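Saturday, quiet lab. Running sequence design on the structure tokens for the scaffold JK sent over.
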């Protein structure tokens, strides 16, 4: 428990001013950008949204777009058929069912096409300042596991563990802090444990390096074996 508290304190010191990295103007644009960010980097999303929002920057304009028009603009973000369909569906539903305003409750926002819990948490926290949960994306998931904050494997279960550790008013900020640390220091394939400011609190510190050198040893010894066998045959 003390270790967990110290991790939170350290994150506050390391990342005191975190903000959502997506570019948007208003809650509807935030929703669209967050849908686009699934399986895609925020940087890439920020490259396509200026053109998308120049054409369809309001919910009414988006609701009147053709799916192919959206697809053409967002193609480079991946999964663009589904994303375009969901963005269009969400815009039309917002116009029809919610008087043109993105709904501000978890229950309602989850009824929009393409909106799962992670997107809903981002929109509620960043767009409305409402802390309903902790957005668990791929960075948050990896960091929570490596830092020993959760042993779970699914975003939903990890979120439940994190909610118990972090005070409610900090849920949004905490998610952004883990994302930032994941991007800058604890990358999926090459965590920089040696220089990581959390290494004394992290049960995974150095483990990645050990695994890599173990793999190398295994490859080396199997190579040697292969050479020996080959030599015997000859
Ligand atoms: S010590 Fe290594 S595994 Fe732990 S948070 Fe830092 S970079 Fe990630």
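Result came back. Writing it out in full:
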């Amino acid at each position: 428990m003390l270790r967990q508290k110290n991790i939170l304190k350290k994150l506050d010191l390391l990342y005191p001013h975190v903000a959502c990295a997506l570019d948007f103007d208003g809650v509807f644009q935030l929703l669209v950008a967050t849908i686009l960010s699934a399986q895609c980097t925020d940087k890439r999303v920020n490259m396509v949204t200026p053109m998308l929002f120049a054409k369809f920057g309001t919910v009414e304009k988006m609701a009147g777009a053709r799916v192919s028009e959206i697809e053409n603009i967002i193609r480079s973000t991946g999964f663009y058929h589904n994303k375009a369909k969901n963005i269009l569906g969400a815009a039309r539903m917002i116009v029809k069912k919610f008087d043109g305003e993105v709904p501000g409750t978890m229950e309602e926002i989850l009824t929009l096409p393409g909106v799962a819990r992670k997107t809903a948490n981002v929109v509620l926290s960043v767009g409305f300042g409402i802390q309903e949960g902790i957005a668990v994306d791929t960075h948050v998931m990896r960091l929570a596991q490596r830092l020993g904050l959760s042993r779970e494997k699914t975003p939903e279960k990890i979120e439940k563990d994190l909610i118990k550790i972090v005070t409610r008013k900090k849920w949004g900020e905490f998610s952004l802090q883990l994302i930032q640390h994941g991007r800058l220091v604890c990358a999926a394939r090459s965590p920089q444990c040696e220089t990581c400011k959390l290494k004394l609190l992290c049960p995974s510190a150095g483990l990645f390096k050990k695994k890599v050198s173990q793999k190398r040893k295994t490859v080396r010894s199997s190579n040697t074996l292969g050479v020996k066998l080959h030599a015997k045959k000859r």
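Notes for JK: Confidence is low (pLDDT under 50) at residues 224-234. The pocket of iron/sulfur cluster is lined by residues 146-147, 185-186, 191-193, 196, 198-199, 202, 204-205 (CB under 6 Å). Ask whether to fix the surface positions before the next round.
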